[in-house]
Amino acid sequence: MRTFLPIFFIASLVMGALTFAPARAEELKTEEGVSDMISIESDHLDVNTEKGEAVFTGNVKATQGNITVQGARLTLKFDETTKTVNTLIAEDDVFIHWQDRQATCDKAVYRLDKETLDLSGDVLITRGEERLTGQKVSVDMKTNSQTVEGEGGRVQIRVKNDQESGILQWKK
User: For the segment 105-154, what is each residue's pLDDT rounded down to a tens digit?
Assistant: First the structure.
């Protein structure tokens, strides 16, 4: 199974973010203490092999290495051919902690096969005193690019001017 980010992701994210800052799977594997093992706790689990998904509900906490994702619901979707997880979706009061970053949002979607992370709904990413807010944050880890949208509101960012900012850096 490919590395979970965000457990975003299992998904940052579980995605996610979903950090918090996602990193490429290869970068996470080189980090000390990080493995392919994902630990998930929840009040309930439903597995539907025909749909190729597992849905964890109630006080969900997913951890891989130094990435933790919490929320009310976590859905893992499996590739029909390889039977490996290809998409992680965390929903409802999502909280992601990764290294020195945290993110909160309503929903986080981490697509392992495409190496993309989408955070939506009142997104707040913090790193120390730095902050980034918007309604949607999309991260492409292959190209190390990100887009922040206000969707009717404003995008806001606060960075330190006297040192290198890390809030917009999505790799390790």
Answer: 999 998 888 888 899 999 999 988 889 999 999 988 888 888 999 877 78
* CATH number assigned to the domain covering 25-158: 2.60.450.10
Which residue from 67, 69, 40, 34 is spatially nearest to 56, judged by alpha carbons? 40
Q: Where in the chain are the domains?
A: 25-158
Q: Could you report the per-residue pLDDT of 93-107, keeping only the tens digit for each?
A: 999 998 888 999 999
Phi and psi angles of residue 26, each rounded to the nearest 5 degrees, phi first: -65, -40
Residues 110/91, Cβ–Cβ less than 8 Å: no
pTM of the model: 0.72
- What is the rounded distance in angstroms from the CA atom of residue 102 to the CA atom of residue 112? 20
